[in-house]
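Below is a filled-in request sheet from our internal design queue. Each sheet records the structural input a requester submitted and the sequence that came back. We keep these sheets so that new team members can see what a complete request looks like end to end.

REQUESTER: design group, bay 2
PRIORITY: normal
MODE: inverse folding
CHAIN LENGTH: 126
BACKBONE (tokenized):
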């Protein structure tokens, strides 16, 4: 005889409660997206759903950071009429978007692009 899966004594009880809590805490569109990413047999597995949500958030964060870094790489001094101050303010604002959640020094790859733009401004002045 199968034990009711909703009783406290059932081995999957806590995983099912976590699943219900997670789905009750996120928006419907996000719930649907998460449900599409997991196998049907895991729809009530709270730890698996939590892992899927965290993995999705992590991947989106990486994509966001790479988008901002590409924007910085594509930004040129000419776009600001060779106004170095405006260029630096734009770069600073974009860096603020990605540096709050990353460790120091993780964006050193941008230095080459920034120095290249600033050295071109210096060469224009002299």
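RETURNED SEQUENCE:
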């Amino acid at each position: 005889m199968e034990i009711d899966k909703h009783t406290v004594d059932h081995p999957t009880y806590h995983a099912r409660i976590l699943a219900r809590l997670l789905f009750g805490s996120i928006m419907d569109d996000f719930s649907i997206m998460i449900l599409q990413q997991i196998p049907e047999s895991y729809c009530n597995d709270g730890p698996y759903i939590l892992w899927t949500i965290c993995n999705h958030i992590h991947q989106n964060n990486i994509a966001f950071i790479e988008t901002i870094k590409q924007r910085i790489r594509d930004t040129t001094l000419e776009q600001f009429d060779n106004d170095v101050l405006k260029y630096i303010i734009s770069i600073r604002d974009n860096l603020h978007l990605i540096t709050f959640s990353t460790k120091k020094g993780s964006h050193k790859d941008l230095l080459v692009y920034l120095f290249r733009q600033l050295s071109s401004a210096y060469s224009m002045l002299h």
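SHEET NOTES:
- Residues 33 and 44 are 15 Å apart (CA to CA).
- The chain has a mean pLDDT of 85.
FILED BY: M.R.
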